[in-house]
Amino acid sequence: MEKLKIAGGYPLKGTVRVSGAKNSAVALIPATILAESPVTIEGLPNISDVEILKDLLEEIGGKVRISEDEMTVDPQTMISMPLPNGKVKKLRASYYLMGAMLGRFKKAVIGLPGGCHLGPRPIDQHIKGFEALGAQVTNEQGAIYLRADELRGARIYLDVVSVGATINIMLAAVRAKGRTIIENAAKEPEIIDVATLLTNMGAKIKGAGTDVIRIDGVEKLNGCRHTIIPDRIEAGTYLILGAAMGEGVVIDNVIPHHLESVIAKLREMGVHVESGDDQIFVKTAQNLKAVDIKTLVYPGFPTDLQQPFTTLLTRATGSSVVTDTIYGARFKHIDELRRMNANIKVEGRSAIINGPIQLQGAKVKASDLRAGAALFIAGLMAEGITEVTGLEHIDRGYSELVEKLNGLGATVWREALTQEELEHMKNI
Ligand SMILES: CC(=O)N[C@H]1[C@@H](OP(=O)(O)OP(=O)(O)OC[C@H]2O[C@@H](n3ccc(=O)[nH]c3=O)[C@H](O)[C@@H]2O)O[C@H](CO)[C@@H](O)[C@@H]1O
Ligand SMILES: C=C(OP(=O)(O)O)C(=O)O
């Protein structure tokens, strides 16, 4: 096991290239199960969620080849192998195996997913969708059992706007008989990316990216080649870092339109941000103003950037309020930021940040992926050395993190945990 060490307080400058989107990758890979010939996905990020999904596809008999950032999946030899335990629990997106295996084999057994602990994360809307398509769904000892004689198109109204349920129902419906309509669908760019892959495979999907998606089922899907969209959350993380410490940082391979809500907030704070076609330039300012943030479904401010943005707000003058309407308990990073001298209070679904404060290096622990992002940004802003543990969370979503940060002039390295630190981790 390793920790991340950061020598903080130095300005950052240069260009950072964004990798393919985690939340697309983790749906595109299971989507390959639905094809009847090989599918190639280009531009995948080098993250543990991708690695685990590759292993899961191999467990069900798929042939997977990886060359640099490209994965080719031959789904022809796959079988409906039950996956009640094991690696499915290591990530959230293993739930997409439910929709994809149900769509292809009309049956699946998948253990309830893992992923970031952000408070309750039910999957009732996914199950409601599978049932509407004709599946019988039961929960037996923490695994979801799905079975259908036949999948038939249906009209499904989502009670909550859910990225996962929208994609999962799409996966199950593309090979169902007849038309499926998903109403109150989520509109995130990753949903459009998955619909693009499925359409290239031969599916008939209209309306992805709006709140009504229509799918006309087809009997068979074929292989194709697909290039993944850039990761707007990774790009947003570097944007926030550039706003905190950048003397001129260019974020390359980004779709600026995906980050409008974040760019607007940075400008409100006084940060200098300029968007090009596939690049964003960001430069910090002497005096940053406090702002209020409320997370919303896309195109609102993304919950996944709430935690790193909170770190930036410690430098702003005045009192900022960050409210998470998606995950009301996504505040585990706050105690760690306090160890670094931040002045933050949590009240219900909101964090109140008083600044400006000079953060100080400390030993901190990432409890989830974006808490990790909040902490490595804090380490880069802080005076002195910061040590971040819990890297297994950060490795789920940040491709080549150390190389990218050092490429901007940071001094960051990974170091093995000492025996004493390992003992301490076992006891907490
Ligand atoms: C792998 C992936 O893409 N993860 C993203 C996805 O997670 P995920 O797909 O799990 O998030 P959802 O969009 O489903 O969740 C949104 C809200 O709906 C609730 N809900 C969801 C499903 C359901 O059946 N019932 C229900 O009540 C959730 O508890 C949450 O409050 O979208 C989240 C919200 O943008 C992001 O933080 C995650 O990074
Ligand atoms: C919450 C996240 O991921 P997951 O849904 O995969 O746990 C995230 O990417 O911030």
TrEMBL record:
Keyword Protein biosynthesis attached: no
Biological pathway: Cell wall biogenesis; peptidoglycan biosynthesis
Binding annotation for phosphoenolpyruvate: 22-23
Enolpyruvate transferase domain mapped to chain residues: 8-405
Catalytic activity: phosphoenolpyruvate + UDP-N-acetyl-alpha-D-glucosamine = UDP-N-acetyl-3-O-(1-carboxyvinyl)-alpha-D-glucosamine + phosphate
Source species, domain of life: Bacteria
Translocase listed as a keyword: no
Residue positions where 2-(S-cysteinyl)pyruvic acid O-phosphothioketal is found in the record: 116
Matching SUPFAM superfamilies: EPT/RTPC-like
Intracellular or extracellular location(s): Cytoplasm
Matching CDD domains: UdpNAET
Residues holding UDP-N-acetyl-alpha-D-glucosamine: 92, 121-125, 304, 326
Pfam family membership, one: EPSP_synthase
Class in the EC hierarchy, top level: transferase
EC number(s) recorded for this UniProt protein: 2.5.1.7
UniProtKB keywords: Cell cycle, Cell division, Cell shape, Cell wall biogenesis/degradation, Cytoplasm, Peptidoglycan synthesis, Pyruvate, Transferase
InterPro entries reported for this sequence: Enolpyruvate_Tfrase_dom, Enolpyruvate_Tfrase_sf, MurA_subfamily, RNA3'P_cycl/enolpyr_Trfase_a/b, UDP_GlcNAc_COvinyl_MurA
Active-site annotation: 116
NCBIfam families linked to this entry: murA, PRK09369.1, PRK12830.1
HAMAP family: MurA
Role according to the record: Cell wall formation. Adds enolpyruvyl to UDP-N-acetylglucosamine.
Family: Belongs to the EPSP synthase family. MurA subfamily.
Name of the protein in its database record: UDP-N-acetylglucosamine 1-carboxyvinyltransferase
The species this protein was found in: Neobacillus kokaensis
Lineage: Bacteria, Bacillati, Bacillota, Bacilli, Bacillales
Gene: murA2
